[in-house]
Amino acid sequence: MTATKNQYAMQDPLKQYPGPDFDRQPQSAPGLAKEMRPRPDHGEESYQGFGRLKGRRALITGADSGIGRAVAIAYAREGADIVMNYLPSEEADAREVRRLVSDAGVKVTAIAGDISEEAFCRELVQKTVGELGGIDILVNVAGKQTSVDSIADLSTEQFEATFRTNVFAMFWLCKAALPHMPAGAAIINTTSIQSYQPSASLLDYAPTKAAITAFTHALAKQVAPKGVRVNAVAPGPIWTPLQPSGGQPQEKIEGFGSEVPLKRPGQPAELAPVYVLLASQESSYVTGEVYGVTGGNPIS
Ligand code: NAD
Ligand code: MG
Prior knowledge:
- This protein has eight helices and seven strands.
- With 300 residues, the protein is an alpha/beta fold.
- The N and C termini lie far apart (35 Å).
């Protein structure tokens, strides 16, 4: 079953997409969208573009699955050329995205590689500039989340890997990309409700998200004089491979999303319009902002 819906027809948001109970469905990290039941809705059948990003050049990390895939589909249908990054083990998901993006009639280049390495981040930006001629939109979506119940079992290796993937990579990519970004360009980072309401078992992940939030506020002030805007999106529980591949224990997958006022997880397709807004000139006076898409839990 796929959770596909017409995302423009007026309807009850409580019933728009599946809610608990879900089946347990363990995968090893980073997981694949194609293995999830129900299949997440990334807007494949529904997202309609209106030319809001026509001719823009976008680099999107984590673009094979989940929120990043929904962003890639939406940006392509809004007219942007795209470089998509993901891990080599996610080639099967990435292939589907490459097809969907090229069906939209824009240019797409897929570059697999590990952003927890600084040299690769610099190479990714260089290759993007080589392919597209510059960067108008940098979307940092890739992230690592591994639930561990006790600090006694949280290794230094995991703590460091989570920070390298979620925080250091964002820093390296922003640093490398900014010299190639003209006035009017936008950076969009992906923080989380965890930045504001951290879970006990996400002792490494939640602080990375708080760092992303603060980095977004600070960088927005720093690059405002260049005419580059920097914002972040703070998702609540979203139905993506991040969660069943170790982001949550399997017993929490069964009730995933039940804790929010809308009583279900969000689908990646429900995030894409916010990433489009923050990339487009329509949000010209919005910078240093965090936009929550949480199903009703406040980001404060
Ligand atoms: P996802 O698993 O579909 O996407 C995460 C992606 O990160 C993977 O597809 C992978 O390509 C990429 N990635 C991980 N480690 C990498 C590395 N070392 N090098 C390169 N790429 C790497 O899951 P998602 O939920 O769409 O996650 C996207 C973002 O949303 C993450 O930053 C996550 O923290 C954030 N987020 C997710 C939720 C949620 O409930 N799903 C909630 C809040 C925030
Ligand atoms: Mg993936």
